[in-house]
Amino acid sequence: MNLPLDPRPRDRVLGLPGASLDRLMPMHVWISATGDVVRTGPTLPRLAGGPVTLRPWTEVVTLRRPRPTMRLEELLRMQGVALKFTLNAAPEIALKGLVVPLPGGAALLNLSLGISLIEAVGRFDLTLSDFAPTDLAVELLYLNEAKTAVAGELRRLALRLNGARVTAEVEAATDTLTGLANRRAFDEALMRLSASGLPFALLQLDLDLFKAVNDSHGHAAGDAVLRAVAAVLRGHCRGRDVVARVGGDEFVILMVDFTDRAKLSDNAARLIARLEQPMQVQETECRISASIGIALATRQRHPSPEVLLQEADIALYESKRRGRGRVTFYDDWLERRRSANGDTG
Predict the structure, then answer these.
(1) What 8-state DSSP symbol labels residue 181?
(2) What is the pLDDT of residues 197-208, one digit of tens each?
(3) Residue 4 has pLDDT above 60, yes or no
(4) What torsion, rounded to 10 degrees, do the Cα atoms 315, 316, 319, 325 define?
(5) Distances (CA, A) of 8 to 3, 4, 32, 36, 40
(6) Cα angle at 314 between 309 and 316, to 5 degrees?
(7) Residue 328, Cα to own-chain centre: how many angstroms?
(8) DSSP secondary structure string, 11-77?
(9) DSSP assignment, residue 128?
């Protein structure tokens, strides 16, 4: 490698102080007549990963257009031509350049970032001080900052709107008093479950003695009891089951893939026993019970949602008629009715 007579970094180029040159051209390269880099602006070493002085200019950048060359004489003949370079330390970083001859066969190469501007800014953490004040890159950086700020604000707005939408959807499907699903959410769940073909049980539950609580202790106590009932139902059911309040003291439960009659009967009986335990409301002991009607959708028998609701309602009415605080399956009621009518089917 041919070194200049004085390898120390120069402080002046054509009488211009180095600090001024750095400000005007933060990515300049002063190439000696022997082809070695004598001085660079402060930005170039950041892109190259360290100092590049005292090295041949061809080890720092590679001329791509208008024609590749490794000879300084040919580079100097391209004065006034828009040049395209790549940075050897990061070949994917495209550079633009202009070359100006200096006395004695030396050259001043002024580089700037091309289409890789945004990538380089992020990758090398460049700031405005890394660019000449008149460089269009400064304007592009401002635009990119503005774009980033706007995009960030739009993302935050989208998240807020999405959160508001989700909240609104949840609220629209939630019973405000108990936090359970409401009638709308239950109807949608029943439609989906019916269309899926999965077996499931539909339990319709109505509270017994609840009117006495309202009459004796007021609606505030009644609301507290309903919230307590909702907590019992949530704790009693599985995570994939749907529990909803569909009326004043009316609740429904969809138990997915659970149609074993003996297990369902035991499950419902335990639920009634739990609800019959005394509840402390406003320092007052309240007692209620519940009647339950059950309709089944099995793989062999899959009635429409409307029919299932009607069957569960009939079974619930039968539980009420037979003394309350009990469980009735629709098909048991149907069998008793046929027997009473002498229909052997």
Answers:
(1) B
(2) 899 999 999 999
(3) no
(4) 140
(5) 10, 9, 12, 12, 12
(6) 95
(7) 45
(8) SEETTEEHHHHHHH-TTEEEE-TTSBEEEE-SHHHHHHTS--TTSBGGGTEEEEES-----HHHHHT
(9) G
189 pLDDT above the threshold of 90: yes
- The mean of the pLDDT values for the chain is 84
Inter-residue contact 188 to 298 (CB < 8 Å): no
> Which pTM does this prediction carry?
0.54
- Gyration radius of the chain over CA positions: 41
Amino acid at 283: E
* Per-residue pLDDT reduced to its tens digit, 22-79: 888 888 899 999 999 988 888 888 888 888 888 999 999 989 889 888 888 888 889 8
Q: Tell me the C-alpha to C-alpha distance, in Å, between residue 18 and each of 25, 29, 39, 44, 122.
A: 10, 12, 9, 15, 27
**CATH 3.40.710.10 is right for the domain spanning 12-131:** no
Residue 97 phi, psi (nearest 5): -160, 160
The number of residues making up the chain comes to: 345
Q: How many Å apart are CA 22 and CA 32, to the nearest integer? A: 18
The residues, any chain, with a CB within 8 Å of residue 144's CB and separated by 6 or more, are 118, 121
> Which residue type occupies 316?
L
Question: 226: closest CA among 283, 180, 277, 265?
Answer: 180
Q: What ranges do the domains of the chain cover?
A: 12-131, 135-172, 183-340
Fold matches, 12-131 and 183-340 = no
> b vs e for 311-335, b when ≥16 Cβ sit within 10 Å of the residue's Cβ?
bbbbbbbbbeeeeebbbbbbeebee
- Cβ atoms of 109 and 133 within 8 Å: the answer is no
The residue type at 74: E
Looking at residue 162, its pLDDT comes to 67
Q: What is the domain class of 183-340 according to CATH?
A: alpha beta
Strand ranges of the sheet holding 242-245, from the earlier edge strand across to the other edge = 242-245, 250-256, 200-208, 289-297, 327-329
